[in-house]
Amino acid sequence: MGLIQVYAKPVGKKGDGLEKYMKVGIFIADSNGGYPVPASKGGAVSTLIEHLVKGNNEEKLVDMDIVTIYDPKAEQMSKAYPNINFIWIKPPAVVKWLDSVFFFLVRKAFKNMKAVSYKSLFSLLFYILKVKSILKWGSYDKVVLENNVPLAWIIKLSKYKGDYYYHFHNIPRINAKCKDVFQNCTAILCVSEFVAKQIQRADNPIGPISPGKTKVLYNCIDTDHFSRVKDQSIIKMWKRKYGIGENEKVIVFVGRLSAEKGADKLLEAAIKLNRKDVKVLIVGSLIYNVNIQDEYQQKLHELAKRSGKQVKFTGYISQKELPIIYSIADIAVLPSVWDEPAGLTMIEAMACGTPVITTNAGGIPEYVGKYGVVVDRNSDLTDDLSCRITDLLSMDSNLEHMEDAGVRHVKDKFSYKEYIMNFYGCIGKQNE
Questions:
Q1: Which end of the chain is more exposed for a tag (fewer CB within 10 A), N or C?
Q2: DSSP 3-state assignment of 67?
């Protein structure tokens, strides 16, 4: 089956430049795993779009379509949002088979390449070919394409002439031979000033985009979910699970276990720290809920052995359980070594009252502000991390002030309710 639809009838209301009953279509698909909305398989972009879904379901601002890859669990989760229209694109078995074969071949043939980017390539192509017709009968007032550059082909193939927006969660590295699509966008939404400035450059594959066409839409988290876990029985149970003693300090890393996220820098810092009263939790995997081992993960395990028994690898932890992980930690160390477009994991930790040490990378400082410890990415990174960890562990009462300030900062700027209103502020009025 190619298309499955679930219908709902939202009741719109005026606000922020939007007309009553305005119809907005959000198109989301990817080549690195086929993450659906609702975010049944995780995924940063899918999770963020679910926040838009949640906000619009509550506020009923517009008639919203979510056009997404089919997943049975996601379909069940969608029932929690009766005021949203979900249009499901279901790749047939042969397409899924092509995905798995191609991903296997890429991983075998190009061991040093980021193979995860090709995990669901054929499903993405199928999605593009299927949904181009939706633009013709969807009668949308506004169309939003989420992040994936090849989705521009939907506009090109359908010859769509209405208002459309690209929402970039990363810096585009290709233009998929669709540079004209990006140049003709009504506007491009960027998750940070850093991303906006990158696509304004002439040397960016889709650039230069006029500054007047870029709008910053900062990411959000569910601050109702990401908050301190105060039940000490839960905290003690999870500490026992990972062999953490009552008086031991806990440092946590949360993220994809790939080189750009910098987990190795934390482990090197932990070796320099050489404290037997400190446990390090490495939370995450290379791919959602799949414990695939590559050369980088082998490096992490070798570093862990050098620290004795102070490092624990948890594997994938669900979004539902992440607040517990943050709450058992004394410090979250998230030392990204690439130009991270935004700082989502950082604000998740801060919302749970966990002090953050991170890097001056990409858009991260825009999210953390003055409420976390930000160090430079340079040859002294490992030493700097070790020193900052030592400093924070010795702060005591001042650390509590830092925790409280971080919680307030995230709630004030990065709640999903702020996000939905900012989103509609971005698409509500056409550029002058």
A1: C
A2: strand
Asked if residue 115 lies in contact with residue 80, where contact means CB atoms within 8 angstroms, the answer is no
pLDDT of amino acid 85: 95
Where in the chain are all domains bearing CATH 3.40.50.2000?
3-220+416-427, 232-413
Domain 3-220+416-427 classification at class level: alpha beta
Q: Can you tell me the distance from the alpha carbon of 87 to that of 64, in angstroms, rounded to the nearest whole number?
A: 10
DSSP state of 210: P
Residue 94 makes CB contacts below 8 A (sequence gap 6+) with none
Rounded Cα distance between 28 and 166, Å, is 11
Decide: residue 216, CB within 10 A, 0-12 exposed, 13-18 middle, 19+ buried. middle
Share of the chain above pLDDT 90, in %: 77
Q: How far apart are CA 315 and CA 291, in angstroms?
A: 7
Dist. CA 359–CA 378, nearest whole Å: 10
Contact 414/218 with Cβ under 8 angstroms?
A: yes
Query: Distance (Å, rounded) from C-alpha 111 to C-alpha 114?
Result: 8
Helix axes 263-273, 381-393, angle to 10 degrees: 60
- The pLDDT of residue 108 is 83
Tell me the C-alpha distance between 44 and 49, whole Å: 9
Q: How far apart, in whole angstroms, are the C-alpha atoms of residue 180 and residue 391?
A: 51
Distances (CA, A) of 187 to 27, 130, 141, 210, 285: 16, 25, 14, 9, 35
CA distance 313 to 101: 29
Angle at 44 between CA 69 and CA 171, to 5 degrees: 100
Measure the CA–CA gap between 15 and 421, rounded to whole angstroms: 9
**CATH fourth-level superfamily of 232-413:** Glycogen Phosphorylase B; (3.40.50.2000)
How far apart are alpha carbons 241 and 4 in whole angstroms?
42
Quote the pLDDT of residue 64: 94
Identify each DSSP E strand in 297-413 by its residue range: 311-315, 331-334, 356-359, 373-375
Task: Classify residue 247 by its DSSP letter.
Answer: T
Tell me if 361 sits within 8 A of 340, measured CB to CB: yes
Beta carbons of 375 and 359 less than 8 angstroms apart:
yes
